[in-house]
Amino acid sequence: MITHLLSAADLDRDTATLLLDTARQLGAALSGREVKKLPTLRGRTVVNLFYEDSTRTRVSFEAAAKRLSADVVNFSAKGSSVSKGESLKDTAWTLQAMGADAVVIRHPASGAAHRLAQWVDGHVLNAGDGTHEHPTQALLDAYTMRERMGRLEGLRVAIVGDVLHSRVARSNVLLLNTLGAEVTLVAPPTLLPVGVESWPAGVEYDFDAVLPKTDVVMMLRVQRERMTDSFFPSVREYSRRYGLDVRRAGLLPDDALVMHPGPMVRGMEIAPEVADSPRSAIVEQVANGVLVRMAALYLLLSGEKGAGE
């Protein structure tokens, strides 16, 4: 098992499958309990170190750690010594002195999680670093696909939208390729990163042409807060060409799945009727995120044992 969870590229097929299988076992172990807690990580300390605002990921990691009976410390850059100019290295030394067994970090700088892993003895989990990666999001997405579709091998997955600024897209492409899925990126040329041709994924610009041969369509949030230039003419034009509306959803195969990592911009990236339809797994992604993050913490902090022991 790996020491840290920094990148989806670090996961081979066996390790990724072990994480997904463990998440399922933990879900089964919790389902029969009146109190949704396991004693597995009692006495361990997990620190959530968030330099960027987050709701889903931070709460998901907190819930995951608490369900494994770990002690949780939530550290926000706002209102801390970071706002007074403390460096990441000094913060790392503080966490080291406090005896953190695992540190979950979200940071606006790509590579921050890798640097932190060099400075602390505990395990580091990357909860999103800049536009680089978000490996646990990719794991929960893969888990959701496997639970709903019954497989990952050979699944045709379209990832649509702001690929340029999306750490979710990068991690998903790497992980899904490792697990045998076929990934196609769909976006305007302005929202594709330099070097995307080296990614293990196809690239298409015509959304309508891709949909009939897609098993899973994953819509991405347009990250306007990261945009300093105009990457498309208007919101209306973007939605017309790359939004998943009711008409486009009708082009998908009957059993196709609709996903979105959130938060959604309804009406721009995805129509409310599609987001709330039976084929949507968006709410399941959130629930599955807790199980997958439980699995990651469990395997990093307690080694390979039977889940639920």
UniProtKB/TrEMBL annotation:
The keyword Transcription regulation does not apply. L-aspartate binds at K84, R167, R221. Carbamoyl phosphate binds at R56, T57, R106, H134, Q137, G262, P263. Signal peptide: none annotated. It is an enzyme of class 2 (transferase). Its EC number is 2.1.3.2. One of its GO terms (cellular component) is cytosol. Pfam families: OTCace, OTCace_N. PANTHER family: ASPARTATE CARBAMOYLTRANSFERASE, ORNITHINE CARBAMOYLTRANSFERASE, MITOCHONDRIAL. Belongs to the aspartate/ornithine carbamoyltransferase superfamily. ATCase family. This is Aspartate carbamoyltransferase. It comes from Phytomonospora endophytica. The lineage of its organism: Bacteria, Bacillati, Actinomycetota, Actinomycetes, Micromonosporales.
